[in-house]
Automatic annotation (TrEMBL):
<feature type="binding site">
    <location>
        <position position="448"/>
    </location>
    <ligand>
        <name>Zn(2+)</name>
    </ligand>
</feature>
<dbReference type="Pfam" id="PF07973">
    <property type="entry name" value="tRNA_SAD"/>
</dbReference>
<dbReference type="InterPro" id="IPR050058">
    <property type="entry name" value="Ala-tRNA_ligase"/>
</dbReference>
<dbReference type="InterPro" id="IPR018165">
    <property type="entry name" value="Ala-tRNA-synth_IIc_core"/>
</dbReference>
<dbReference type="InterPro" id="IPR045864">
    <property type="entry name" value="aa-tRNA-synth_II/BPL/LPL"/>
</dbReference>
<dbReference type="InterPro" id="IPR018163">
    <property type="entry name" value="Thr/Ala-tRNA-synth_IIc_edit"/>
</dbReference>
<dbReference type="InterPro" id="IPR018162">
    <property type="entry name" value="Ala-tRNA-ligase_IIc_anticod-bd"/>
</dbReference>
<dbReference type="InterPro" id="IPR012947">
    <property type="entry name" value="tRNA_SAD"/>
</dbReference>
<dbReference type="GO" id="GO:0006419">
    <property type="term" value="P:alanyl-tRNA aminoacylation"/>
</dbReference>
<keyword id="KW-0547">Nucleotide-binding</keyword>
<dbReference type="InterPro" id="IPR002318">
    <property type="entry name" value="Ala-tRNA-lgiase_IIc"/>
</dbReference>
<protein>
    <recommendedName>
        <fullName>Alanine--tRNA ligase</fullName>
        <ecNumber>6.1.1.7</ecNumber>
    </recommendedName>
</protein>
<dbReference type="InterPro" id="IPR018164">
    <property type="entry name" value="Ala-tRNA-synth_IIc_N"/>
</dbReference>
<dbReference type="GO" id="GO:0000049">
    <property type="term" value="F:tRNA binding"/>
</dbReference>
<dbReference type="GO" id="GO:0005524">
    <property type="term" value="F:ATP binding"/>
</dbReference>
<dbReference type="GO" id="GO:0004813">
    <property type="term" value="F:alanine-tRNA ligase activity"/>
</dbReference>
<feature type="binding site">
    <location>
        <position position="556"/>
    </location>
    <ligand>
        <name>Zn(2+)</name>
    </ligand>
</feature>
């Protein structure tokens, strides 16, 4: 079965069961500061799991692209992936365990659907602890459907509980479905969840009945939800009889391409190939969201993935710049990426070149340090600072030689450095804004209105890429692939002018960066902030409605009515996937 067929079958099945099919969301969570990437299908649905009404109803199903970096050390095994697709069905306060499990079973085993013999399935359920009881109900339902008792395993919270990535929010016990590949047990304790590869987890039904609070309490949710996730790659693999995901149509051409690029003969020990394919696939999808490699947040994850892939490439004898060639094979599998391919190739080449230069020198330096069989956190920080070695890379190289790197020391060295550079940038900031002439202040506020308007009119994926203000005009760069149409420009201009006319108020508060993110204040992409930041909010004093909220040093006007008339005078490109606007206040 192809991935396309499986996707369709899954959605058809749940449509028949009364579910509305909704489109998958972006890989970049739109309004959730607790995670960098969408890690599961439930993620974009969080507000609805907490009780908000979903416009499509109480039964939903979709296919969601996900990125998970928590499993990075497992990449290279048979089943784990950084980027994967999850097929999911949800009950928002509608059906509960019986229907959810029965439908999972029906879809997996019925001839018309996946036709997996029930005897190939092993099931896990929650064992119970102080927060919630043993999930006997689920076990009973499975048994009734014909799953043998000895194929049902009771596992603790670490394995059979779905908690949100951000630690707080909707959660609950789950029951997981594993496909038994038929391999020998690796030892007498081998069971679903064992990493030997005998069991492939293909589906997870979560019974969300709690909301975990900041204080670590599990409060009953107002509405009980079901959240399920089936791994697309894993499922097509087991249906085809493979014991790993890399032989499927979603990976085979990538592995083949990597083989062609090596100077050694393909196939070789598989781990390097797998890591390269996995990481570059994830990197390609992240790049398609207009994220660039950097040293912070998403950019840093991206950088780590690319650099790790490059290092594994070197290990199998790939000498030349190659990541963009692998990306080519990825884009062939996922044609929806085609529209971003120029940006993807350009960024991969640039990052690989950057890394290639430092890798050579860094490896020499690493060898020098490793001679003493000890690398301090501070030395590891120097490798990071001077040779672009992410800590994980130094740790990985250290592991190969049995050298442990003290992570705490590394973090301390990093913090010290960041404080120093912040001092530097604050000084610059003061100098740059020394001329607080009234006009400049107005343009500053107009820039915030402009960003908020662009996000509202064009797409909430827009981020600021650069800004330059003089007393005569503002210039604003932002992430966006397409040229703006005259209608779009007009709409943006009109919205800004409307907000000027509405006489919105501008206020600011100082808070920790964490609080600012929690409040979903916009930041400048790739910018490093200190612990404490200023957040400017532009809001309607009558309704309290917030139009814009940004981390910013200021200064700003008190009321938008001071700004005058806003006019966009030029729209142009400013590099790959970045547009530039110039505007004046009249
Ligand atoms: N949220 C659960 C998971 O990711 C089920 O969708 O496994």
């Amino acid at each position: 079965m192809t991935s396309k067929e499986l996707r369709k079958k899954f959605l058809d099945f749940f449509k028949k069961k009364g579910h509305a099919i909704i489109p998958g969301a972006s890989l970049i969570p739109e309004h959730d500061p607790t995670v960098l990437f969408t890690t599961a299908g439930m993620h974009p649905l969080t507000p609805f799991l907490l009780g908000e009404k979903h416009p499509a109803g109480q039964r939903l199903a979709d296919a969601q692209k996900c990125v998970r970096t928590g499993d990075i050390d497992s990449i290279g095994d048979n089943w784990h992936l950084t980027f994967f697709e999850m097929l999911g069905n949800w009950s928002l306060g509608d059906y509960w365990k019986k229907e959810a499990i029965e439908w999972s079973f029906e879809f997996l085993t019925e001839k018309k659907w996946l036709d997996i013999p029930a005897g190939k399935l092993s099931i896990t359920v929650f064992a119970g602890d102080k927060d919630a009881p043993e999930d006997k109900d689920s076990a009973k339902i499975w048994q009734k459907l014909g799953i043998l008792k000895e194929r049902i395993y009771y596992l603790p919270k670490e394995e059979n509980w779905w908690g949100p990535a951000g630690q707080t929010g909707p959660c609950g016990p789950c029951t997981e479905m594993f496909y038994d590949t038929g391999k020998e047990k690796c030892n007498s304790n081998c069971r679903p969840g064992c990493s030997c590869g005998k069991y492939a987890e293909i589906w997870n039904d979560v019974f969300m009945e709690f909301n975990k609070t900041k204080e670590g309490k599990y409060l009953p949710l107002k509405q009980k939800n079901v959240d399920t996730g089936m791994g697309l790659e894993r499922t097509i693999a087991v249906l085809a009889g493979f014991d790993n995901v890399y032989e499927t149509e979603l990976f085979k051409p990538i592995i083949k391409k990597i083989g062609e690029l090596t100077t050694k003969n393909y196939p070789l020990p598989t781990t390097h190939y797998r890591i390269i394919a996995d990481h570059l696939k994830a990197a390609t999808f992240i790049l398609a969201e207009n994220i660039e490699p950097s040293n912070v947040e998403r950019g840093y994850v991206l950088r780590r993935l690319i650099r790790r892939a490059v290092r594994h490439g070197r290990q199998i004898g790939i000498k030349n710049i190659f990541t963009h060639k692998v990306a080519e094979s990825i884009i062939e599998i996922y044609p929806e990426l085609k529209k971003n391919q120029d940006f993807i190739f350009e960024q991969l080449i640039r990052e690989e070149e950057k890394f290639g230069k430092t890798l050579k020198r860094g490896l020499k330096q690493f060898e020098r340090l490793a001679k003493n069989n000890k690398i301090t956190g501070e030395k590891a920080f120097n490798l990071y600072q001077n040779y672009g070695f992410p800590l994980e890379l130094t740790q990985e190289l250290g592991k190969e030689r049995n050298i442990k790197i003290d992570e705490k020391d590394f973090q301390e060295a990093l913090k010290k450095h960041q404080e120093l550079s912040r001092l530097g940038s604050e000084k610059k900031f003061k100098g740059g804004l020394a001329d607080h002439s009234k006009k400049v202040t107005k343009y500053h506020t107009a820039t915030h209105l402009l960003l908020a308007a662009l996000r509202q009119i064009l797409s909430s994926h827009i981020y600021q890429r650069g800004s330059n203000i003089t007393a005569e005009r503002l210039r604003f760069d932002f992430s966006h692939t397409a040229k703006l149409t005259p209608e779009e420009l007009k709409k943006v201009e009109d919205l800004v002018n409307q907000k000027i006319k509405d006489g919105l108020e501008v206020k600011w508060e100082e808070m920790s960066l964490e609080e600012a993110k929690k409040q979903r204040a916009m930041g400048v992409f790739g910018e490093k902030y200190g612990e404490r930041v200023k957040v400017y909010t532009i809001f309607n004093p009558k309704t309290g409605e917030i139009f814009s909220q940004e981390i910013c040093g200021g200064p700003h006007v008190k009321r938008t009515s001071e700004l005058g008339k806003f006019k966009i005078i030029k729209e142009e490109s400013s590099g790959a996937s970045v547009r530039r606007l110039r505007a004046v206040l009249e």
